[in-house]
Request: fold
Amino acid sequence: MVREKILRLIVVCLAVFTGVVAGPAAAQQPAATPLADAGAPADQRLRALQLNPEVVDVVAMIPNTMLPSALLRVVKPDVAVFEPDPTRPSRYAQVDTFGTFTLFTGEQGEGLPAPFTPFAPADRASNDKLVTAAAWTPDGSTLAIVVDNPERLEASEGIYVWEPGVTGANQIFHNCRPGAANCLFFVSAQGEPANWYARSLSWSPDGEQLLARVWMSNVERDGFVVLTRTSDRTQRGPICPYQYSAWTPDGKQLVVSGRGETGAAVLGLMTTGTCSEVAFARVSGSMWLQHGVADTNGSLFALGRASYDAGPVYIVDGEGSVLTEPIGATSPSEVQWNPTADAVFVRTEDGRSYIASISGQVIDVTEFVGEGVHVAWIALAG
Reply:
């Protein structure tokens, strides 16, 4: 039954995403297509992953000829964080709703390494190892996590990295939430903001640099910092004031979007390590823009809408061309681009889920995803 569902979804996605529909008039519906030869190698890669149907299920597959990808959904109950190893999704980091972290390899689980203790907390409020985000390096050798419990406000909160089975966890960044009275005693911060905390993580393509999305108290929105495995946790450099950020495929630049230094919404390319050298796309300043990305050809895409007010978004390119119809009826609450930046998963505030393509299609996958269920893209490498 599970296998039949996977094949049915693959057929649907082949039919939808191989057709090209120009502009926002995506009313054109491609004819249903059988499982094409172009999709067969990707399907074989999917089988080779040996996914455990009691853990994850396949929502959709995007048969990009360079690097196919699949969207997984977590079927295990009570999961708050789920991060699969990109090289073998049968190994994954999980945090349950109580806040307990477990690294699973198959059915074998292990907790956080030293300096964390193996003892379970009495409750979530006292949890000294509450993981809120995680990210693997592309080669699956190193895991980065955010430990952040707003009830504790301790120096141990922040970003840690380690190589499972090789090293313990090394803290490379301190969180400093509002109300953390001892913050200035354990970290020296360069410039604003006075308070900050990490919210999400993304490794560079070579696995050497870590992009951390960080909340900033002075403007009450996100910015970002770029760290390394050996960053000094007692020194906090400037936080770049761009609301959204993502690596380019070569890792030499960052795609920045959302509100920038002036408060206007932008889309552009920033030279890594500068926090200032930005080449803005033509669309910058003309509409609301968020979650910008770049594909392997250097083309920029983002989610945008005409107004800064809340509402549905559509995919736009760097020139300002609208590529899809509105994605749903309300604002996004979660956005995940696939590894090749040609399709995006969007969960909206009304609980609906969609996959949209830069070729123009928008499909509602709510019935396959479920409400509040975690999802993650994986690349189907050869």
